[in-house]
Amino acid sequence: MKAAVSLVLLPFLLLYPGEAAGRLQSWIIGGREAKPHSRPYMVSLQANGKHMCGGALVHTRWVLTAAHCQLPRNRGPLKAVVGLHSLDKASPYQQSFSIARSVPHPDYQRKTMENDLMLLKLDRKVKKNRQTKLLALPKKAWVAGARCSVAGWGVTEQPGKLSPVLKELDIKVLDGRMCNGSRFWHGELTPTMTCYQAVVKRSAPCKGDSGGPVVCGKMAEAAGVISFSDESCVNVFRPPVATAVFPYKAWIKKVLKSL
Fold first, then answer.
1. Which is catalytic among the residues 37, 105, 116, 230?
2. Where does the pLDDT of residue 23 fall: very low under 50, low under 70, confident under 90, or very high at 90 and above?
3. CA distances, 109 to each of 1, 115, 130 (Å)
């Protein structure tokens, strides 16, 4: 998956030369500001006080995110922040947690981005309230045409700064065979990868706000975890890609039980 590697590496060289951990960069092009705390499952994964990746609270002690969001040891520990809307303003609903345990999928492949999922165990239980709630795991596999959404604190243009507030973007799931065809990802996608596009043209979750959830359904389910996209965020021939959650539901439940 050469295209996926280049897109996450090149922008990151501006920040941390020589590190492939640029996959932690999070961007959303277009979209709108989310109503504060309307997505109470959203998690900001931070290092040294800076937002690095998105995530979803799926248990009072576990966050679901992307495996590539794991930081090298020399970059300092990740912290998980819930109950957050603004990155710049402290909130009385904000809760911050250290990571007690990181569990990337055992078959995660950094080069191909296969099985790009990770569960992070928090150092204590989250206090649930109106601003902090859990996101349900999917009851089914979401198919082509499904209307979903993504959210994050990523930049709104290339190059640019992180959004100070949580933004959201409406998307739709694309047909897998078409997306993996010769005009698009040309066979680089695996069966557990799902690609999608923004409902509004020239909008895209560029770098997917890595680790953040693809949320589908009236009852809000974690249909996917955003993984990668093309170097050009709005390239219609390289739609953003997420790891589908449903095929990994058994693995996720097994890890969640290992308290």
1. 116
2. very low
3. 10, 7, 37
